[in-house]
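Hi P.,

Sorry for the delay on this. The queue was packed all week, but I finally got your sequence through. Input first:
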Amino acid sequence: MKFQKLLVTVITLFSVSLFSQTTNIYRAEKDKVHNLIHTKLKVDFNFQEKEMNGEEWVTLKPHFYETDKVTLDAKAMVIHKVTMNNQPLNYNYDDYELIIDLPRKYKRNEEFTLYIKYTARPERVKQKGSAAITSAKGLYFINPTGLDKNKPTQIWTQGETEASSCWFPTIDAPNQKTSQEIYMTVPQKYVTLSNGKLEKQTTNADGTRTDYWNFTQKHAPYLFFMGVGEYEVIKDKYKDVPVEYYVEKEYAPYAKDIFGNTPEMLAFFSKITGIEYPWNKYSQIVGRDYVSGAMENTTAVIHGERAYQTPGQLVDENVQENTIAHEAFHHWFGDLVTAESWSNLTVNESFANYSEYLWLAHKYGKDEADAHLLEDVEAYKQGQNYDKHLVRFNYADKEDMFDAVSYNKGGAILHMLRNYLGDEAFYTALNTYLTDNKYGTGEAHQLRLAFEKVTGKDLNWFFNQWYFNSGHPKLNISYDYNKLRKTVTVNIIQSQINEFKFPFAIDVFEGSKRIRHNVFVEGRDASFTFPFTKHPDLIQVNADGVLLCDISENKVLSDYIHQLKYAENYMHKREALLEVAKHQDDKKAFNAIANAMSDDFYKIRILALENINLINKYSKQNVIDKIMKIANTDSKTLVQAAAIETLGKLTDPKLKAVFEKGLESKSYSVLGKSLVGMYYVDKQLAIEKSKTLPSEVKKIIATPLTRIYLEENDDEELAFIASNVMSGMFLSQNKKTQALYKKAFDKISKSDNSEAIENLSDDIVAKGLQYKQYSFDKVGVNLLRQMAQLQKSNNPSSKENNLRIIQIAMAKLLE
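Then the structure:
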């Protein structure tokens, strides 16, 4: 599963939790009393009541010991009857578990099939889910009665972690594997999607159609999927494997622009694992109001609405591409070999997270991948994650495992392991792990054993400190120079509680010449001495950017200027640029930032443009001319947009032509920045342009429009602004954007604009329900739950008063 990335503010906002994320209870793998063998379902849907009528034939056998009872997970259902061979069976049902008396004792090699007729009632499910404040009801009806004319009618399922048992009785645990058949009866106008192959479609006399989906391989119950809706199905393929994209008609022309790299991803992942894509198809569907980022249901991946993008967005970047790669790699790590328990979630999610790095490096180069890794590592560090083990057997709730440790830190740990062992050994070990455990389950120890089997190395030390312990090295670095001997000694002191050992790369720079020294740190205090020809201009530790650590060292401005110019790793260039930018009253510093605007990597160019100070004595016309050229000609539209934003700060009428050209750009980022730039040189033109934009474009460039409308005190646009406040404050990673929407929130909350207040409250509820948040503690969860309840309340008091109460609750969140 892939969750949307979080704004640091969200994590720190709720940093003081009243509830611990750990417990003394040992969270074991679920006992295997019975093994699932096969699951056959026949279902149809009651759209009005948001219920599903189901028949199930489930085949099981005892795992080892003989048994005369079967316990199935079945949440909030009505059980109509249970039979075996047409003979009724006695059972007990408590809304959570269905305990069935078998007619006799069955031994471990004896299979038997139960028939269960039932009604699934997902709206009555009472269990916390991965979406933080919603119940994990497994089966979701979206606009089932069609009353909302702005939203299609859809049905989709979400099984992880243990919510498939909300729509069919099963043993809902990741250490179970079963094949499946599903007969789905739906109105003719809908298409369906499920796991495996669509074998047959039968038209019924009542105007419905029954689709028969057959999945002959075995996978975990949480990976079962059903999707229903009015979709266009765009066909693609990988070798002889059908690849499909289920999208709403509006986005059909752009489906291949959004998802079209999928076949190449399947080829790449097949190559590096040495295991050809192991399933019979690969379909992706976009679900409205989906509760997370995406989910790796075997052969039937679902994505949230964020996947929908138009050419004006895609020309800048495909924001869903990492998620598409993430879910694809899950088809090896998670679907083919599944974590045996949620405690070992790392063998699913850490690999899916790291696949994003691997894909980016393969497709776009190392800089792009390193920048993504740095963002992930920073997100891990900024949460309450330092004391959490990667493998955790004492979590308070299984949903707590879906955090920046299992994902971000786990991916960074795999990157360190790959660096330590080398690519050939790393990928060979992945193949060994997947081959030895295919269609089964795995845990961290099996992963370690696969790496040891391939490399011949003992890796207990690595797994003990990174998988079964917490934290990361916090390093104090100092340097001793011996001018007579022409040596430099690098001193490394670990200040954290847990002692780590690790490989460490150190670069010694003499001018542009770089000498790499690879050392291995053992012990809390380590020193390494290296020769030099002339006094080094820079010593760069963790030079390859691989080690997950915090570093404290004393560097001066000249060090950072040299680092910005010559360092190879994105992390070090970024660090240097941000430090140099603080000293632009120094001419060398200013010139260093100006030069960085020509860096080969576009994210460094953007960072330089965002941080250059044009209001100082060294800001000459040639630098401004350079920025104008970048605004007009850079190969990356995001860089053009950054250049236009920088020029906009000058409020110089001479730049009007640059903004006018930007207003005609195909790129929405360029268009948005140009509107703001134009606003400060020709208000009337900018406002007139903003008013003529199509509503779908206005929604996409909401942030620059919000800046203009707030500056203009345009109360007519408050309702528009209100619909984007939550995204701006909580989902943006830009501090200026956060501050802008906080200002918007304050303005709306003090206004008497009932439409704006209603839109704001709708946005609060929608975003609260839609986005999983890594460190979202129980206080914030409860307040958002109260907001949702108030919004849906039938209390006779006026809706406006309810909305005001929601405002107060939101204000408490922002304190």
